[in-house]
Amino acid sequence: MSDMKIRNMDEFAAVSGLSRPTVSKYFNDPDSVRAKTRARIEEALEKYDYTPNFFAVNQNRNVTKNIGIIVPNLSDPFFAEIARTIGDLVAEGGYRPVLLGSRGDPVQEIDNLENLRLLKPAGVLMAPLGRTSDVEGLKRFCRDVPTVLFDSNVDDVGAAFVGSNNVSSIAVIVEYLCRTGEPPCFFEMATPANPNAHKRRNSYLATMERLGHTPHVLRAEGGGWDFEGIGFRAATHLFAGRNLPTNTILCSNDRLAIGVLSAAYESGLRVGLGPGCALRIAGHDDHPFSRYTCPTLTTVSQDYTAIAESCVARLIALIESGVMPETREVVYFDGRLEMRGSA
Amino acid sequence: MSDMKIRNMDEFAAVSGLSRPTVSKYFNDPDSVRAKTRARIEEALEKYDYTPNFFAVNQNRNVTKNIGIIVPNLSDPFFAEIARTIGDLVAEGGYRPVLLGSRGDPVQEIDNLENLRLLKPAGVLMAPLGRTSDVEGLKRFCRDVPTVLFDSNVDDVGAAFVGSNNVSSIAVIVEYLCRTGEPPCFFEMATPANPNAHKRRNSYLATMERLGHTPHVLRAEGGGWDFEGIGFRAATHLFAGRNLPTNTILCSNDRLAIGVLSAAYESGLRVGLGPGCALRIAGHDDHPFSRYTCPTLTTVSQDYTAIAESCVARLIALIESGVMPETREVVYFDGRLEMRGSA
DNA sequence: TTACAAACTTTACGCGCGTTAAAAATATTA
DNA sequence: TAATATTTTTAACGCGCGTAAAGTTTGTAA
Question: What pTM was estimated for this model as a whole?
Fold first, then answer.
């Protein structure tokens, strides 16, 4: 490694004994130059460390190698985890992932898109906030930039959606709960932002009806993203009133379930399957922490990996084909029942 | 809002009836132009939406308005949370935060720095991995870019460090535990990457000695970032052996404690203060989930906000002074005991 | 060896903006 | 109103690289 500082591509071309346009070609596609030429450049790269100026490279492009990844909230380990997986796949695909969280705020969500726009991204992978999203704002962005949604679907936004099949996964866990004990009631937020919540409730209602049971939906008041707190407070109140319609609670998601579990503990209610247990509690998502709750949380795992792979592959195909597809694809992956201690 | 597309600053200057250099001045500092001029530009901005081309703006600068934020792992809610707080403050300070996670991988950590370097950041705020970090690599970066460390200190790296005073916070919780029950043993990972772990153990040892108690340090085998799992497995083994030196366990951090709590539950050991409880468990950090464990986790909260404010303020001062300071500042904030149900 | 395609070099322009120097316009003060 | 200070305009260059056209070299096949 020489300590000579290379200031620009001209200098680097000089020390590698080639012309700048050839070196430029190499950086845009190493396979576009002759093997011998490539070898000379790579030899020079080992000797003098040089990386093309990021800003100059992108200035003349109307589209870069950046791919934006937007999730509703990076503080939620579920989204942090899937964002990480997606980021890895984007990098493997030869693109540069740019990760942004919307903090549960629709204004921030649009801000993120506008900030991304400045980066002239090749495409965007977005888990939208859902009900609270500024749908027109999203559409406006998606008209200009190839976008694939994941996690939450928003009608007609983006070129495709990849997510979990809530209908089937809720059916699976409802059937399981009915088979192994009292039919569950359904615990959800009164005004959930995430559209999956609605699908889950509807699937609960349909499955209960199909199985010939009377459904009960319990709604927790409260907004924002402190799901555990919302679940905790509502459940505490519920337990104090001792008017649960059944001893089995299916929560719309694991974070609510974690709050409900905590409330049960504080209320002195033993949760689980065995004798001496007053309550069964189940969730949905297989949140990273659901393995370590007390008791461990029975839930439905989403197929992270499949979802991540599918949406990244779809976006890259979209980008590299160069045409906006006329039909909007919607892809679902089945969840899997994770039987643990709580139900 | 006119639908005429503004392609560049020349066109925008034209529609606002000013010259391009004046408009350029405005975008670099709105206060550098006359009030009347500013008003004309802002009027035009409302009518035609125009944002200077990000790449062109930065191309000629050797330093931009970007500030990098690097944390060991974005999947850890603790870091996600503090990164969010820091990001907000950076944005408030007029800089653009760029968030990166190292995934517990020292190679990724250096990669992140190299990627940031391409963005010519004004500065970087980094929570390093610690023991596993490539210290020489970090130093090389910090020579070129103003950097302030937070959370974990690494000797002689960066211009300053801002973090928690582990010595005092562990002393506080050890004193509390001794005062209210059996003196605690200390539960930690055998090979912790985070340097805070060492400080915490040493403070535990010193405090126990000062109080005239015999210290006991328990070590969990296992590497990586699955702290809950590591804590769970080691504690399960420990509980099965029934050879705990005391009924009180102080864990090096909350994520380990969450695993230990889970193990206690699975082992049928009731955790808490009251009669009928076999065990007390405490943690450190006030992890976002520690409010919802069963029982809720007694811990020490780090002063997130103060740490974030301090390190952002320090970095911005550093950047705006333009000189690398000759002495490296180290700032600690005291933690606060959070008494909850587990101890 | 010749012929020809592929790869490379040379030359030159453009991207959008920062920035500077000199000239012109505008505001402030006396 | 004149003199001065401040701001804006005009004109022009440069940043580092993408890219295109025309000419030259190199590699490959006949």
Answer: 0.92
